[in-house]
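tool_call predict_complex ligand=manganese (II) ion
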Amino acid sequence: MERKAAIHRQTKETDIYVSLNLDGKGSGEIDTGIGFFDHMLTHIAKHSFIDLEVTAKGDLRVDAHHTVEDIGIALGKAVKQALGNKEGITRYGSAILPMDETLVLAAIDISGRAYLGFDAAFTSPKLGDFDTELTEEFFRAFSDNLGANLHIKLLCGKNNHHIAEGIFKAVARALSAAVALDPRVSGVLSTKGAL
Ligand SMILES: [Mn+2]
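tool_result ok
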């Protein structure tokens, strides 16, 4: 069974298209109009092995907020849709990811309950045309709409590009593990019988 999904989400602020294949090779076709964010989403694809296409036309004349948040919403919905009833998935995933002086922890439970724990501070407000504070907004929108418990913790780091990239890569690795099919799982991995 193919685990693919496509989401088109249009509002007065943004027009977002996301399609993905959970069982892909990590190809990323990303065009959000925000260069640094394209770079981050490409890391999500590459390090989760999810084939990911994201096209966004947002109100960037305002700022990047609506576009980044709405892509988080669409990506969360797309992963949820591709997982279906979540039969056979590993459910949990975590990673501790180094990037030079930076070290990031990410842990996810695709539980059906949304919670974001975000403990990472940037010392620069911008990376290119991306506002660093949008990192938290993106992952909140993502975890809310996937229905996942996601913790992100910066263990150490100085360089803001490394910190952002470490966070996106760590989440990618954790997500990859959580959505992976485990042959030992029959049905859904929960004593409740549903996720
Ligand atoms: Mn980079």
